[in-house]
Specification:
The structure holds 3 protein chains of 3 kinds. Chain A is built from 6 helices and 5 strands, in the order ααβαββαββαα. By secondary structure, chain A is an alpha+beta fold. Chain A has a 3-stranded antiparallel sheet with strand order 2-3-5. A two-stranded antiparallel ribbon of chain A has the order 1-4. Chain A is elongated. Chain C has 7 helices and no strands. Classes of the chains: A alpha+beta, B mainly alpha, C mainly alpha.
Amino acid sequence: MAVIVKQVKLSWLDRTYFWPVFKGMVITFGHFLRNLFTSTPKRYTVQYPDMKRVMPEGYRGLHELKRHADGSIKCVACFMCAEACPARCITIRAEEFSDLNLTQGFEEKRPRVFKIDMLRCIYCGYCEEACPKDAIWLRKDYELSAYDRLSMQYGKWDLMNTYAEEDGKARITTDPKPAVCSQKASL
Amino acid sequence: MDTLSALLHLSPETFWMIVKILVVFAGPLTIAALLTWVERRGSAMIQDRIGPNRAAIFGFRLIGLPQIAADGIKAFLKEDLVPAEANKVLFWLAPLLAFIPAVLGMAVIPFGQSFESGGHTYHMSLLDPGNGMGMLFPMAIGAMAVYGVLVAAWSSNNKWSILGGMRASAQMVSDELSMSLAVIAIFMTAGAYDPHDLIQAQYGLWNVVPHFLGFLVFFTCMFAETNRLPFDFAEGESEIVAGFLTEYGSMKFALIYLSEYIHLVVASALIVTLYFGGWRVPFVANPGPWLSVASFLAKTLFFCWVFVWVRWTVPRFRYDQLMKMGWKVLLPLSLINFLFHAFLMFRRG
Amino acid sequence: MFLIFALITLVGALMTFSMRNLVMAGLSLVLCFIGVAGLFLLLANPVAAALQMVVYSGAIVVLVLFVIMLLASHEEEEPKRSRPIQRWGSVAAIIALGPGAVLLVKSSPFLASSQVAPPMEVMTLHRLGGLLFKEHLVAFEIAGLLLLAAMIAAVSLVKREL
């Protein structure tokens, strides 16, 4: 595509060169002074390990598997997220959950294994969109690193606890016993 | 002065010589080391960044000053690489060739008012006035400085380096002439070329007022002489990797780098001596030794800062633009300045 | 002091024509010029020393080196064939003419007169200017004219079509 380059006519003052340089120096000195009298934490730079950037709404970071109030997992192992995933990083093994049926407020399936390979995940958020139960969320944690590949395989309990401290929830490592009088009955 | 030297069992002359040597050689070195910090933090502030502030001594960060020491230690501990195809002797010699002229540059510049004590007159410059060399000495030494760049460039046996060296030599030739003409105009009006006499002649009116055109030319040429940013073609990191420095690492690199900063200090001192009245203080006829040294230091540091300031304001020129500017703008300007002052002197008779 | 500077000059000069490498030869030339500048200083002529540094080692050799680098002759040229006759001839000439030159200098009347002369006054820019523009004005102007002619000739040679 041809582009017509606009020829800028410089005034004689600009062509002396010294005047524009002088103007530029005033600008840079303004910046210098402004920064000189601003304390370091208030400048633009986020000094990372000491200060952390607040991520905007809608940021897609580390996943969380949501749970009900009684601590049981929301996921029903429908495989929708695994199907939607373009990176094929989600592995689910389903298991039978309970003898009680759906009308009594219980799902009949739940994941026995729910694994996300964080090295393959591209944080596109399709799993979140695909989920019919709103059970998987991509949230704001972006500090994902490990010393080996195995540590980047997040299992079911890792994923359920990723934001436990932040939200003030208890860390859980076992599925709670199903109880009839759970709030899920109102479904 | 006499009591001090008697305490050290030295004659006053020897004692004063030692003091002067310390000041003239250690002073620019110290300022140059501090300038690396000023440059990094100053540029950060100009560009709304923070700059190096992590280096710490015993947990005290001291606004990043330990970074200087950290850099020095790092430069010493790094592996010293010499390219296989380089000219070994010259490759080792080049940092020295850059360093020695840089350090020698301060030798004639008076850094304070001469004073009398115990019947002796003590001059605050390494070479006493009346040595016959005067301001020609820094010019001669400055002319030698380009060899550090040239030898470094050629001995590296690297195409980027040779390009950088060629640029440096061509640039030097095109700048030296207009710079000399600007200085000669000052020699002419002052009727002297010894820096002490030049400062004496600037009593009441600093040279920057009558010689404003010459000052602009000289100032611009000083940027080229010190390889600073609007004209740092020899390095030109966005075009020719790092120019003449491409193959240099560790302490050899640090030495060349340091000598560039010493050049900057010497250039500032030259500007102050030639155009801003050296150690003179405004509205004070006889400032005395301490005040005069402080005044000289303040002015020199200010110009060091201006060098840093301009570097982070103005982008690099194109190579042909520099050539055009050197021969078609700066040379006529300094000629006009020269002829103007010659005409004025002729009218006054 | 004289011996040191004379040695620097001589070594520089010898290296200049014995180096196979052009850039090295140019740098030795600088060494030679520095030695000459030192000799000027010993002759109580700091102005000439400074000008020697500024003009010769500063500008001219830099230009020469620039051209050498531009031509990119970084390889050391091997001599096409050794020239024994010339080599031995030059040695013979040095042996034959050297003592003669030394004798000539030693017996010159100037040397005898300079030994009784009072120590020289230090040359300053003022004296140099006076000498150039008062005593040797004609020679100075002729030199200027020659240089101007050379400059015009160089321009006309380079710019074929004006």
